[in-house]
Automatic annotation (TrEMBL):
Lineage: Bacteria, Bacillati, Actinomycetota, Actinomycetes, Micrococcales
Transmembrane segments: none
InterPro entries per record: WH-like_DNA-bd_sf, WH_DNA-bd_dom, WH_DNA-bd_sf
Native species: Glutamicibacter bergerei
Domain annotation Winged helix DNA-binding: ranges: 18-94
Name of protein: Transcriptional regulator
Matches recorded under Gene3D superfamilies: Winged helix-like DNA-binding domain superfamily/Winged helix DNA-binding domain
Length: 98
């Protein structure tokens, strides 16, 4: 039986990765939009994104658009594989006869 990835398993990070996984490969989402979808405070989301970024599951890019700083987030290929493995481990845990 596979272990559930503790980086993804925390509820806030699981919700974050689940939302990011809905984006197509190469697409990204702005921090405020992600924050709104998850109904999280900016500090809480930033903390969880930092943990995901340290594991190379997400990429965070801060850029200037005109004079305004904007932060974009996307799921990396490593993050996509980790999430697929997480979902497989969860399915196995829930239905060991599979």
């Amino acid at each position: 039986m596979h272990e559930l990835d503790p980086v993804i398993h925390a509820q806030a990070r699981l919700r974050t990765v689940t939302v990011l996984d809905t984006l197509r490969v190469g697409d990204r989402i702005s921090f405020p939009k992600l924050q709104g979808l998850l109904a999280m405070t900016s500090g809480n989301l930033a903390t969880h994104l930092r943990k995901l970024e340290e594991s190379q599951y997400v990429a965070v890019e801060k850029i200037l658009e005109g004079r305004n700083p904007v932060t974009y987030v996307c799921l990396t290929s490593t993050g996509r594989v980790a999430f697929e493995n997480y979902k497989s481990a969860l399915r196995e845990l829930l239905d060991p006869a599979r």
